Every structure is written in C-alpha cells, then in structure tokens.
Amino acid sequence: MLALTNCKLIDGTGGPPLTAATVLVNAQGRIETVGRREAVTLPPDCQVIDITGQTLLPGLIDCHDHLTSFGYDLMGRWGRAEPRSTRALRVAQVMDETLLSGYTAIRDCGWLDIGYKQAVEQGLISGPRLQLATSPLSPIQGTQDRSSPSGHHQPASPDPNLPRGIADGVENVRAMVREVVRVGADFIKFFNTGFGRETQSGTTRSYTPEEANALVDEAHIHGKKVACHAIGGPGLRTAVEAGVDSIEHGCLLGLEPDLLKMMADRDIYLVPTFTVFTFHAVHGNPHAQAEAGEFRQQHIDTVQQALSAGVKVVAGTDAGGWEHGNNAKELELLVEAGMTRMQALVAATGWAAGCLGMEDRIGTIESGKLADLIVVDGDPLAGVALLQDKERIRLVMKEGQVYLDRISSG
Ligand SMILES: [Zn+2]
Q1: By C-alpha distance, which of 62, 14, 56, 8 is closest to 31?
Q2: Could you tell me the pTM of the whole model?
Q3: Residues 181-194: pLDDT tens digits?
C-alpha cells in the first residue's frame, strides 16, 4: 500500500477541494481510500509520500489528440516524410513526454494504430492510457481524402496498419466502420464538415443524413462511440441529429439552440479544441487563418451557451497539428473562454473520462478507481497555467505505477 498524504485534493468531480487529504493506493493499482488525513488509518507496511503544500489531482485526459501527426504537410500525412521506424520512435517519444507532463489518458482522434497501444500495455514504451479512432472516415473530397493541389490522389494505403477511411454511400460507410473496428478502433471518428480548405469550409456537409445515420448505427452495433469533426452549418446538424456521442470543434454550435438542447438530452459531449485554433489563426494556410478568425468569437460564446444548455464541455487540444507535449494549454484557453478554473479541471478529468466512456475507471479520485494520479507544485485553482510548467509536475502515476517522481528525488 502507498499513501500520498498532507495534500490539497481536487478529485475531478467539481466538488470542493479537500485540504490535508490522504489517498491510499493498493497493490492492484487502484485507489483504496480517500479522505481527510485524520480519517484515514495507514496500514503498518504502508509507504508514505508526504506532499505537503502540493495538490493531488486525477491524471489529466486529452479528449482530442493526434499522437502520430507532425503538422499538416502532405508528405507526412502520406507517410512519406521519413522511414516508418523513425516515425514510430518519434511517436514513442511524444507519448512518453505527454505522460510525464501529467496526461495519463489520451483519446487519439486519428491515425494512431493499435500497435502503439499494445506497446504501452506490454510495457515496451511508456505512455498514456490510449483510446484510438485509428482511421477517421470521410467521403471522397472530405477531410480524410488528402489529394495534392495538382490532384494527385492519396496513396491507397498511407499506413498499411490502417484502413483508407474514405467511404461513400450507406453500404460502403457501414463496411468502412467494420474495417476500422477490425483494426482495433475503440471509437469511430468521422469528418462531417471541412475546415481551412478552399474546396471545403467549416460549414459544408460531408455525409448525407442517410450516410451519417448508417455510420452511427453501425458503430453503435459494435459498441463504439462516435466522435464527429463538425464546425457548423448542415454538417454539424446532420451529425447531432444522427446521434453521435461527441462533437469535435463545434465552433458555431451556439448558433443552434435546438442542437444544444438535443446534445444535453442525449449526453453528447462538446470538445471545442481551442488550442489548435490559436495556431490556425496565426500559422495556418490562408483559408484556415480566415476561418479561425471568423469563428473565434462565436467559438468562445459557444462554450458558455453549451454549459448553460447543460452540455458537457471537455478538454481536447487537437495536438499534432502544430505541437505536442503542451496539452494543458487547453485548460488555460477554456478559462479564457469563460469556464471557471474548477470547470476547466473537470473538463480534463471527470467529464473527460465520461467523453471516453471510462468514467467507471478513471477521471476522479474515488475508492475503487484506477490510481491515475498526478501531484503538482502549487494550486491549479489559483491559475491553471501552472499545469503547463513541466517542473511543477511532481509525480505522475498510472494505475498505481509511478512514471515520474520529483518528490523523492527532491
Ligand atoms: Zn483532430
């Protein structure tokens, strides 16, 4: 048994923090007991880590990452930028950095294959707990269809471990969902609007209602949740009406109160991914810059409108488009968009676990849950930006195993 004691505790539920708390972690990697220090009896053989003056939180969760992506360059996206072995090791390094920055779970929204997840589970590399989309779906000309400006088609198999993801028509969409399930997808991701492309803006619609309904139905038959990239307009409406489980980006969602109500009623999450838009606005191609600028204010307003309507807003960065390893930036941006600091912390813990469908195992510090825990130097309720300071991440534990310990090493 291991005890983390004398800390401030933010449990991920949004409830008031506990001061002078103790958490006991058992040998099975689960949380045994949580409580005020004086209420928790330490077993005789217990290893005790005193974390006075520091804060204990659930391991952070990023609901929208792309661990295998390094920018939007077509050669990289076609798997031609460097040897596959080099790329695999680069991804492993990013996964390690991401874990050590306090992120114990990542929902990867595209192009990470199951081998990485197996490597983490088998202890070949260290990384966060992973939930994978593998190949996202879109129709021809949609976001998954990456042709060159001169019309060169995406190679049939940019990554031999992944299905192509491009599917048109109800039957082909169902078949592609089955292919994606076959390669180990934990959830299904599809693009139903574009963004930042001359031929496909954020307010277009990729799939017809019939195709989107079939996609969601097929995914749910296999017990998989569905995440949909949708910025606004008819593509967004079609996705929500089809009954997806989360809307990714959703910048213009606040303009459609009936969709917000539908999302609240059906427990559909919103993952606004502000981080990626801060980069698009400055470094994106001309179309991405223009759209990021155009959507910005409504994107911020959408968060408040969603929360007022009862929609759960969760933290996701869309990392991989521009940078890796600073996933906590999203919390700062959620606060700038009007969330309280506590809401932003819940968006990256308790609610985020719900978005992943893992709320029974992770996301909050409660007895019986997996011991995915972090200790930070200082109080994130006084400013969430401190979570971006790697030196202030003092301890990272995943399922009871310690991956980073700056406390014992002083
Ligand atoms: Zn993405």
Answers
A1: 56
A2: 0.97
A3: 999 999 999 999 99
